[in-house]
Structure formats: structure tokens, C-alpha cells
Amino acid sequence: MLRNLILIRLWKRLIFVVYHGKKASRQHSLTEVKVLDINFSALPSPCYIVDERLLLRNLEILHSVQQRTGCSILLALKGFSMYSAFPLLGKYLKGVTASSLFEARLGFEEMGKEVHIYAPAYIEAEFDEILRTCDHITFNSFAQWRRFKDKVNNIKTKKVSCGIRINPEYSEIETPIYDPCYEYSRLGVTLSNFRPTELEGLEGLHFHTMCEQNSDTLERTLQVVDQKFGDYIKTMKWLNFGGGHHITRPDYDIETLVRSITFFQDKYGVDIYLEPGEAVALNTGFLVATVLDIVDNGMKIAILDTSAACHMPDVLEMPYRPNIIGAGNPGQYPYTYRLGGHTCLAGDIIGDYSFKQPLQAGDRLAFCDMAHYTMVKNNTFNGVNLPSIALFSEKEGIKIIRQFGYEDFKTRLS
Ligand SMILES: *Cc1c(COP(=O)(O)O)cnc(C)c1O
Questions:
Q1: What spatial distance separates the first Cα and last Cα of the chain, rounded to whole Å?
Q2: Quick check: 213 and 221 in contact, CB under 8 A?
Q3: Which residues form the pocket of ligand 1, taking CB atoms under 6 Å from any ligand atom?
Q4: What is the pLDDT of residues 51-105, one digit of tens each?
Q5: Quick one: which atom of ligand 1 is closest to the CA of 278?
Q6: Spacing, Cα 242 to ligand 1 middle (Å)
Q7: Can you list the domains of the chain with their CATH numbers?
């Protein structure tokens, strides 16, 4: 009980810190959203929990950009596909952007607003279904456009607007695996491969060259896009700025974003789309896990009922170190532990953290910012079960939306 109280106290302090940062830049007051009062010891473990109130804050910020500029913001499903939240997301956003037929279908069926799609190449056998579920299709090459052009033109029941992804060969991403402009990139048509004679029927250009970046990067990128592709943008109806805009981050410069959008709208008369994934769900969810055991092999190591490899793969892939409520950097508090998953992968390590009290088997930990690029990427490596998924709303409190079991593991195998 005492432990729980302490954890809840820490929890409140952390949320205060989170809001405090935002308060400074956006004049949100703490009273606008109550401090987090979720009793996470009531959750199954492990469990992702998304707080609708935090989601709403992000949506309000994104919506203000739409209102100020008239642009359209789409949710990139690749980053966040928690469809139980789609009714709420759909009240603010114009629709979704998909990376595959399945994502497109999910957006079509569960949100029912605009459905855009982009993939490096489309599968012939899936294309009729893509035409049924999508209203905007972006192609990655002129060869792909040529291959599917007739199918697009033959569709009579609805209007499908097509575009081509350009590669401006300018990005400020330092991790090659996340850099669409890296040498020999397969993503987007470079200026030297651009075919002005094949633009007939195409209504949009799309670029995606950013990752977790502020609007100063966008502004510099747009200068290059304008210089290289301005002549072609003139002939288009829409321009899609892709994702990677960290719009809901406390230090994000919204004024520069707004200026960048209106600059292109005014100069070319095009509709502007943004398709962030991460920014929609940034800082809205937690992964709650339990300590299973403590071992000591030169340092204290806590083994958890969650796994970096299975439940937060970006911790290994990105890589990054998630924050934990009430925990600090190694040595910051008296008790330092390495936190590891319960798979057999030697590198299934989340990181080193320190705590004010010694950890014990049964203790719960809450990892922060676990809504995006987690549920969409998790897996059952080692036969590890998937975390439950819960939603917290002011009205209904905790709602456990989904729990997984052996059947979910088994049905992916044969
Ligand atoms: C990944 C991706 C997005 C979303 O990126 P975020 O970093 O989550 O904002 C949008 N568009 C395309 C084409 C992408 O590949």
C-alpha cells in the first residue's frame, strides 16, 4: 500500500513536469487537464495504456494548425493504429495515411474519412482493394504509375487522386535507417529521374524526409523542394509534406510550420497535407510492467515481464531510452538497476535506471511515451505474450480493450 502511494505520488509529479514544459510554450494551464490519476496497479501486466485526455491535447494542437492554415492533417497509421481511439481522432483529423492495404482497410473501416496510401511498390493482386479503400494514392516511381494508371482511370464509382513521391535529396536525419534521402535510397523520385512528360493524370506531389524534427528543418527542406520541383508543383492540386513533424512536442515552433504551409499555399495554390504518426500519439501512453526477479552479475539487474525486443522494439532499433516514472539516470538515485526483458535475447535490455528504493519482485514500473511505434511493431518472439491494451478516459476510467493469449501467438504460425 505504501509502495503504491509512493508510486502514485511520483506519477503525479512526472505528469506535472510534462505539463509544465508545455505550459511555458503553449499557455496550457495545469487545471486544463487533471494530473494523471490512473491507478495502474489495477491494470493487467504488461499493459499499454493510452490516456484520452493526453491524446486530446495533441489533437487540439494539430487541429489549431488546420484551422489557422486550412491544411489537412492525416494520422500515419504506421505509427499508431489503436483503432479504439479512431472515433476520437476522426473528430479532429481529416483521415489517415496507410503504408499498406491492411492499414488502408483499417482506416477505411474504423475511421471512415480520407484514406491516403503510399508504399514503395504496390502488389498487383491487392490493387483493386486499394482502389476500393483509398481516395489518394501516391506512387513511388513513374513505372508504378504507368503500371496502375489504367486501373485508376477505369474506376467509375469514385474519384481517386494520384500523386508521386519525390525525393528532394535533402534531409537532416542522422540515422541512416531512418533517412529516406540516404545514398541509393529507394524512396521517391529524384529530380534527375523525374519525368515531366508523364505527369498527366497526377494531381499531387509527396515528400517525406523528416523524423522527429522541428519546423526549422521543414523550412530548410521546403526551400530545396521549391527550388527543385517548384515548376511541377505549379501544375498540382496538392502537396503532401509527409510525416516526421514533431508538432506536439513542447518546444515545437508552430509559427514556422504555419508560415511554411501558407507560403506554399499562396505561391502555388495547392492543398497541403501533413501526415504525422508520432506527433499524434506523442506522450499519450504508458507501458506498465512488473518486476519478475532481481539478479546480480556485477550489477543489479531487474528482469521484467515485458521485453524491449517484443514490446518496445524501437528501444533497440532507434535506439532510445524510455523514461520511467519515478526513476532517474544511473547513479542519480541510490539504487541502480539494469532493466531487462524475459526473452532469451542477450541484448533484450531496456537500459540502466536508478530508483529511490530498492526494486522487488512484484513492483510495477511505468514506461513513458509508449503509445506510438509500440503496439504497431510488437511481436511474440520467444512466445512472449503481447501486452494488453487499455484506454483511460475521464468519463469511463480505465477500459481494458484487449487482452491477448495463446491463440494470438498460435494463429500467426502454422
Ligand atoms: C513514417 C511515415 C510517416 C509518419 O512519420 P512520423 O515520424 O511517425 O510522423 C508519414 N509518411 C510516410 C510516407 C512515412 O513513411
A1: 45
A2: no
A3: 76, 78-79, 97, 118, 208, 211, 242-244, 275-279
A4: 999 999 999 999 999 999 999 999 999 999 999 999 999 999 999 999 999 999 9
A5: 8
A6: 6
A7: 2-52+285-410 (2.40.37.10), 70-281 (3.20.20.10)
